[in-house]
């Protein structure tokens, strides 16, 4: 078990490509931290730097108390689960799991014990003699996990391990990874571009954009108080509505007095914070046109345009709206559900 | 693999398109091969007036001939050493080039050049390099007190044709090995690195087994090459000598048939050679391929 400390970590590729631009982060012992961001944000590069598969241009990386900047991947006592599993196709499942132990000079008996133990945990003990090509996607995924598990490393690294599975299996494996991590309490760093996966898995999230950290926090902290407009738009589905302040007209109270902090010029409103009936707390009342109604079973989405400004917005609700498409409706937003931003800096203002 | 079935409006068009290849195969392979089979069971008198059918007598004769059996053994040694040498060097070069990122195209181009050189030219090249009188290599070897004269020493002559024949084939093997190496997914190597395998171990336990389809294919191609295509190299360097020390099966066929004009025996030998290559390929497909991980 160990913590991971990143101090001013930078990665610059030849020329002028700054893939990772100064990351400071501490991952506590036993914690599962998810790196999340759009593709090309540097999250995989960062993970590979921790693994030792990419060199570190600048900064310090510690696992436990040891600086590991120049150590080989094998010497860092980490295990990694790759996106395409990277199973050795010419070896049986047993040998795939045993390979790392053999290389480290474990005794035959010990290897056998560990492999069978890991196989049992992951329920792959029936396939130990098969080659990877005869396994299904989910089984391959388990073998890849098993290969990480047998070594009992200080740190688990996951590089989008679920992105090759179908939607149903993905949810199932997500739950299993979380259970397993809870049980083993191994410090883990997990990379994904799927915000839902990030929210459900992580003890903490690190939202990355263009090689920089936008925000670090627990999933609920990030969801309820996004620090930047980027985070607000990236986390949560459907994405948060961003409405320029000047387009918001409270029809009950023409002199809008929200006590918003100084540079605010944009309000973020979550789709589920827009109600069709007035809440009891202080709220805005806004007129809008219903453009499209989309029923998705347990929830439905209403696409509206604010009156006077044509500003589009999405509402998430359950059940049918009282109006037909094309008709006017009134929507309500509680004051406490507003997220004030300054669009020039992209930062939250309160 | 996806297969697409094409349909043609004109029913003669497909035959027309196939014709060039078929004609070449017929004229340059099937017809001479059938001629060889035919004359291998015949005897022609010295003046070419009369041809008699003599059954398998030519075969019985060559199998009882010690020079033929020696040539057979020599060919086995020759093909194993050329295959090992050329594939070994090619693999080493391919691994090196595969590690180079930026200039790999440049190296690849240079390394493929020898393949464009005709066998005879390659032979002449090595003949010059190893020429006991004017060659560079004997001159250098002289410093180590090695007296190089492949016109006298059978072993040295054998080494010379092995090097010349292998050099010619390195390019071909190199190209296939490089392609094979590049098709191995990078994460596999990275996973092995994390699993604690040092570069050398990584190569032998991951890369080399995954290259086995390429290796297997190249073994067959190389043996075929040594059996048939090394004629030019031998003819330009040693002409089978000294004292038959480099007389391989294919050169003996030429020597007995074209030089010695013993068409019957020569034909029987070429049919035997064809049989040997077929048998080897069959054995390889049957037994070696099973261990190959496709």
Commentary on this structure:
The complex is a heterodimer of chains A (350) and B (294). Chain A has helices spanning 43-51, 93-103, 108-121, 137-150, 167-184, 195-201, 219-224, 229-234; strands spanning 4-13, 17-27, 32-36, 58-63, 66-67, 78-81, 155-159, 187-192, 204-209, 212-217, 241-244, 266-269, 274-275, 283-296, 299-306, 312-317, 328-334, 338-342, 347-348. Chain A is α+β, with helices and mostly antiparallel strands and 350 residues long. Chain A is elongated and about 80 Å long. The model of chain A has no long low-confidence stretch (mean pLDDT 88). Chain A contains eight helices and 19 strands. Chain A starts with a strand and ends with a strand. With 294 residues, chain B is an all-alpha fold. Chain B has one domain: MetI-like fold (Orthogonal Bundle). In chain B, strand 1 and strand 2 (51-53) form a beta hairpin. In chain B, helix 5 crosses helix 7, helix 5 packs parallel to helix 11 (231-237) and helix 8 (186-194) packs antiparallel against helix 9. The two termini of chain B are 14 Å apart. The interface between A and B is medium-sized, with 22 and 19 residues.
């Amino acid at each position: 078990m160990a913590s991971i400390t990143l101090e001013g970590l930078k990665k610059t590729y030849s020329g002028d490509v700054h893939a990772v631009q100064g990351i400071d982060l501490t991952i506590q012992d036993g914690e599962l931290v998810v790196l999340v961001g759009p593709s090309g944000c540097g999250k995989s590069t960062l993970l590979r730097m921790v693994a030792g598969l990419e060199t570190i241009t600048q900064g310090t990386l510690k696992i436990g108390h040891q600086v590991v900047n120049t150590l080989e991947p094998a010497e860092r006592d980490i295990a990694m689960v790759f996106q395409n599993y990277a199973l050795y196709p010419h070896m049986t499942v047993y040998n795939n799991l045993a390979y790392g132990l053999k290389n480290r000079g474990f005794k035959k008996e010990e290897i056998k014990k560990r492999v069978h133990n890991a196989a049992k945990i992951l329920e792959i003990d029936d396939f130990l003699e098969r080659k990877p090509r005869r396994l299904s996607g989910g089984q391959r995924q388990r073998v890849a996990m098993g290969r990480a598990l047998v070594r009992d490393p200080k740190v688990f690294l996951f590089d989008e391990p679920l992105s090759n599975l179908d939607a149903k299996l993905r949810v199932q494996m997500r739950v299993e990874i979380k259970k397993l991590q809870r049980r083993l309490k191994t410090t883990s760093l997990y990379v994904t571009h799927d915000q839902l996966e990030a929210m459900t898995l992580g003890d903490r999230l690190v939202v990355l954009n263009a090689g920089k950290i936008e925000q670090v926090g627990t999933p609920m902290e990030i969801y309820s108080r996004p620090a930047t407009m980027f985070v607000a738009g990236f986390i949560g589905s459907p994405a948060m509505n961003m409405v320029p302040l000047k387009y918001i007209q409270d029809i009950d109270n023409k002199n809008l007095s929200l006590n918003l902090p100084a540079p605010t010029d944009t309000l973020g409103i979550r789709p589920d914070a827009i109600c069709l009936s007035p809440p009891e707390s202080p709220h805005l009342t806004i007129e809008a046109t219903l453009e499209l109604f989309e029923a998705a079973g347990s929830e439905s989405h209403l696409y509206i345009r604010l009156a006077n400004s044509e500003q589009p917005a999405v509402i998430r609700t359950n059940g049918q709206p009282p109006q037909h498409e094309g008709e006017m409706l009134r929507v309500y937003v509680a004051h406490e559900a507003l997220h004030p931003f300054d669009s020039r800096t992209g930062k939250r203002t309160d | 693999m996806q297969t697409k079935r094409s349909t043609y409006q004109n029913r003669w068009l497909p035959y027309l398109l196939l014709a060039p290849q078929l004609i070449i195969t017929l004229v340059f392979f099937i017809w001479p091969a059938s001629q060889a089979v035919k004359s291998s069971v015949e005897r022609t008198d010295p003046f070419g007036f009369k041809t008699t059918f003599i059954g398998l007598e030519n075969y019985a004769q060559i199998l009882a001939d010690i020079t033929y059996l020696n040539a057979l053994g020599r060919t086995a040694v020759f093909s194993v050493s050329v295959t090992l040498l050329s594939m070994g060097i090619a693999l080493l070069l391919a691994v090196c080039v595969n590690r180079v990122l930026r200039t790999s195209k440049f190296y690849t181009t240079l390394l493929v050049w020898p393949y464009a050189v005709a066998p005879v030219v390659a032979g002449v090249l090595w003949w010059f390099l190893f020429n006991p009188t004017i060659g560079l290599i004997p001159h250098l070897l002289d410093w180590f007190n090695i007296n190089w004269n492949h016109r006298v020493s059978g072993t040295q002559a054998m080494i010379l044709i092995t090097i010349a024949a292998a050099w010619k084939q390195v390019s071909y093997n190199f190209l296939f090995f490089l392609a094979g190496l590049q098709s191995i997914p990078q994460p596999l190597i990275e996973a092995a690195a994390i699993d604690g395998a040092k570069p050398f171990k990584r190569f032998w336990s991951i890369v080399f087994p995954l290259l086995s389809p390429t290796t297997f294919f190249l073994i067959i191609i190389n043996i075929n090459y040594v059996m048939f295509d090394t004629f030019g190299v031998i003819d330009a360097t040693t002409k089978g000598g000294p004292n038959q020390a480099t007389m391989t099966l294919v050169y003996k066929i030429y020597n007995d048939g074209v030089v010695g004009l013993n068409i019957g025996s020569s034909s029987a030998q070429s049919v035997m050679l064809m049989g040997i290559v077929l048998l080897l390929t069959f054995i390889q497909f049957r037994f070696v391929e099973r261990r190959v991980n496709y």
